[in-house]
Write a structure and sequence with these properties.
Blueprint lengths: L9 H10 L5 E7 L3 H13 L2 E7 L4 H9 L3 E5 L3 H19 L2 E4 L2
Parallel strand pairs: 1-2, 1-4, 2-3
Helix pairs in contact: 1-2, 2-3
Amino acid sequence: LEFSKNSAFKARGACNKILKLDKNVKNVCTHSSGNHAMALAYMAKQLGFNAYVVMPENSPALKKKSVEGYGANIIISGNTGMIDKMHASKLARNIMHSLYMRTMTIN
């Protein structure tokens, strides 16, 4: 795996978290406006997971484009980290319920 693909050291952390997940987990979800979002999206794609990222509406367009380019589903939320974190937690519960798969929120 190419850990510098998204120019962030956070890719290693995202990879480690994903690799430690229960084998039944198929979806990962986080809230981030940038590097963590890109790292999780990239590693999820490389490792065969579905990624959902809650991003503030004021996130840089380039970051949003990168996250989408790595295959993550972006959900635009408010402009504060607390709102995004609450939205991500709710999203993880909804995904778990509607897809009958376990979802892990990675922060």
